[in-house]
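Re-run requested by the PI after the first attempt was lost when the workstation crashed. Everything re-entered from the original request form. Ligand of interest: flavin-adenine dinucleotide.
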Amino acid sequence: MEDQVTRIVIMGGGPAGYEAALVAAQHGAEVTVVERDGLGGACVLYDCVPSKTFIASAGARVAFRDADELGIGTDDVDSTVHLPVVRGRVKGLALAQSADIRNRVQREGVRVVTGTARFCDDRTGMAAHRVSITSGDTTEVLAADVVLIATGATPRVIPGAEPDGVRVFDWRQIYDLPELPEHLVVVGSGVTGAEFASAFIEMGVKVTVISSRDRVLPHEDADAAAVLEDVFSERGTTLVKHARAEKIERDGTGVTVHLKGGETVRASHALMTVGSVPNTEDIGLDKIGIEPGPGGFITVDRVSRTGVPGVYAAGDCTGVLMLASVAAMQGRIAMWHALGEGVAPIKLKTVAANVFTHPEIATVGISQATIDSGEVPARTVTLPLATNARAKMEGLRRGFVKLFCRPATGVVIGGVIVAPSASELILPIALAVQNQLTVDDLALTFSVYPSLSGSITEAGRQLMRHDDLD
Ligand SMILES: Cc1cc2nc3c(=O)[nH]c(=O)nc-3n(C[C@H](O)[C@H](O)[C@H](O)COP(=O)(O)OP(=O)(O)OC[C@H]3O[C@@H](n4cnc5c(N)ncnc54)[C@H](O)[C@@H]3O)c2cc1C
Ligand SMILES: NC(=O)c1ccc[n+]([C@@H]2O[C@H](COP(=O)([O-])OP(=O)(O)OC[C@H]3O[C@@H](n4cnc5c(N)ncnc54)[C@H](O)[C@@H]3O)[C@@H](O)[C@H]2O)c1
């Protein structure tokens, strides 16, 4: 019998969609990616890539500010931020990366179609599915043996506080500011809010952060969040805690944020970072019999299957862990599974993540909160960077390395790093967690002297010392 080529349609060309497309094409499937905007998705065009490019400019200003302490005179001149140049870099890099991704997937033989994809099955329960692609006045319908939903998410809008791109912005519009705001109020203190607050603070802007909880970064390591709060307060940032924005009024000179309870915060501009909603409303889920779960997210299992045969979902539309790396892995796993390749279910406990604030906060594995709650027994050590020779040379006073291991075996189960380059430093701990290496393995590995990574091997040695006491 002749082998049938599997027809795969991927709705959305972000990290979940395009990484899946690469895997599927490499395994001989006939792949179409439908993307209404640009390849790379919101990740490349509006979210991850632009924000990190913007943060790189803020980082350059930090280096300039800190140079004096190391004996390099900047003549007390306040470095000026040329926002239109920053904006040009942000937009240019995003478009270039999107073009690179398009070329790459097309080179692998993937068909890329510009348009909006929707299911249009005649009835539920069909073995193959139908996807309509609308672009302007034209509509094309594709038959598919497998469909991957990878439609991502969109900034959440609070009614009464809608972004207008003039005084009130979401994070996708903020780069269009013609000049730095006089006073920016950041509404929401999750990862997006903390990253933008940090970047604007480091660019010299007065910032007020509205946090619905008792601290910034409520889902991150509490000690790491405390370091960031210290930096924020040292730079004159006000953190309004336990506060929810209900409405924003704007006038010729600024904005007034009305908080639940009646208080107000006045600023020149507002940035809304209150989370995202999945793009699952208008994609014809009813045609295939999928009912979205709470918040509109599509429920999937650990190999990215939805409840409907032949339909997979990956990335932000599933709400599993809203990270580009996780989206990409969910997408690849979906294709391996659909094409009958051997595949291991996704392991979220080994995901390394980073908050790109100044300093950065990187985490992997089991969290301190899980250990403190008694859910996972562990031995832990925290080494302040202030004890690291290289950190002293570089003038770094804040930050730490934390390492967690199993009590009896010393197997590394997690860690947190707070340092300017934490995103780069976390890899040895991630490698240890993924491969069940022990604190001895870390301790016996040579690190360069002097280096910040020396604190990781030192943390291993400190945990090794007590190994036989358990
Ligand atoms: C400000 C910010 C910074 C971030 N920084 C990081 C970071 O540093 N590291 C990290 O790992 N993660 C980061 N993230 C998270 C990361 O951006 C997301 O997890 C990632 O974009 C998810 O990828 P995705 O493929 O699911 O969706 P997306 O990247 O959102 O792509 C989905 C695509 O599908 C398209 N689409 C939607 N509906 C349709 C349709 N019906 N037909 C056709 N196309 C459609 C959309 O236009 C979009 O282009 C950040 C998020 C934000 C908001
Ligand atoms: N560096 C990175 O990897 C990176 C960067 C940005 C975002 N992300 C990911 O994207 C996802 C979303 O993060 P996020 O920060 O955009 O959203 P979030 O949902 O995590 O945080 C939004 C915050 O806003 C608060 N909020 C909601 N309504 C409010 C109101 N009316 N007033 C005041 N506060 C309000 C919420 O309580 C919440 O704490 C996360 O999973 C995150 O990991 C990752």
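Saved to the shared folder this time. The chain has 14 helices and 23 strands.
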